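Morning. Coffee machine broken again, so started the prediction first thing and wrote up yesterday's gels while waiting. Chain of 62 residues, entered below exactly as on the submission form.
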Amino acid sequence: MAIHLYKTSTPSTRNGAVDSQVKSNPRNNLIYGQHHCGKGRNARGIITVRHRGEVISVYTVK
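Came back before lunch.
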């Protein structure tokens, strides 16, 4: 089992190393995408749940 060390091109890969066994058999939560659920947003990213916060009026009467 060889360990692959990354070059220090970015701060995140400076201390990174990957085992060859991990590359051949990765964990399922690392190779599949996440479900886009929660926080009450639709596909456009607009909040669609109740109690969204108060809308501030642009025009004020003095």
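The helical segments are 20-24, 28-31. Going to sketch it on the whiteboard this afternoon.
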